[in-house]
């Protein structure tokens, strides 16, 4: 995407709006630190020599971030050198270590996306012994070789602190990590991350690790193309998050999708939209659905972002929008068209069947398998058992088969007709994968040029390498035992 210097100022402007909004709801945030986990990616160059890098990498490397004025409301635990380290493992290690050293000063926890915060928790589960040893001895682990990281962390690890190390060890060595976030950082007041759209499926995991004691806050709406707006009610329920778009970010237009969000949802991505179908910001209607179109200062002209939004209300006279889903269809075998929201909703219902067995759906993705006739939907699920004093009840095949049919029962009319009447779609399949598979999937996409900051687990897999990785980690597979209910 094209970017100009002034874009950095607009992003900084939006970031600077967040704390005044938060301060209306949670006071005294200037009396402690924020443990936000930020990452950069190594940049490339175009053939003509222009730098090409992820939008957040561009921001973190800019003077707007590196030369920012001291601000008590944005006092980060992570040193800039750790954030700017391109080795994500070394960066993660140092940022978590800094957050643990300052555990009694941390008032806010967060990352750009909820998935990144959960990845950090997984990293902490594997490395807390080494982190405690660093704090106990006052010396950074030898695995951290980046000179800038070592230099910045030497100030934070200025002396041994065995008492702090013992506190952290006592918490991390407990059999259950339920509520771990609020225990390790007892003064934390909320968790900040993107929790809308595909990130909504991480809400139960974050609530588990915080024991529901820390509000989940989604402060802003942005993309690589442009930053869009802010959440004026950050402490609202995650399901009610709505954003007020800022007209100084770009020129907003909207493609009407009707009152139920279905009209035009199957339009060809490449086809143009007649000008008369576009409406501007002041003419959107309450309750209606739209696809977002932007014209940016950097040169994008009537660019279709691909996000489906619903108008949910107004702040004064400014419309507020709820993110619904990406416009693109996620899965399709025949006439069926399953989008991201439908898939997420059906899995949300189905995963409740795991709760009696003390099991948690950690991550999922999907694939339209047409290698056999009829083709069928495949869901890759990674499940973990919540550790407790009692031994977890193992999942048997009947439970997973019931999950399969529960997903199908929640999919739309057309899908159920294809399954039950037309027989053009085969029984849905759930493939259980080994723990850590989705971290390996993330590593694969990052190694191919993705950004750790902006990575989102794809809800539909099309890459042959990604499918090979997932299938190599399958432990068991289960199919729907019957057709879903369908009434003509």
UniProtKB/TrEMBL annotation:
Domain GH3 C-terminal: 341-464
InterPro entries, per the entry: GH3, GH3_C, GH3_M
GO molecular function, one term: acid-amino acid ligase activity
Domain GH3 middle: 243-326
Signal peptide start-end: none
Keywords: Ligase
Gene Ontology annotations for the cellular component aspect, listed alphabetically: cytoplasm
Pfam families: GH3, GH3_C, GH3_M
Domain of life: Eukaryota
Family membership: Belongs to the IAA-amido conjugating enzyme family.
Protein name: Indole-3-acetic acid-amido synthetase GH3.9
Lineage: Eukaryota, Viridiplantae, Streptophyta, Embryophyta, Tracheophyta
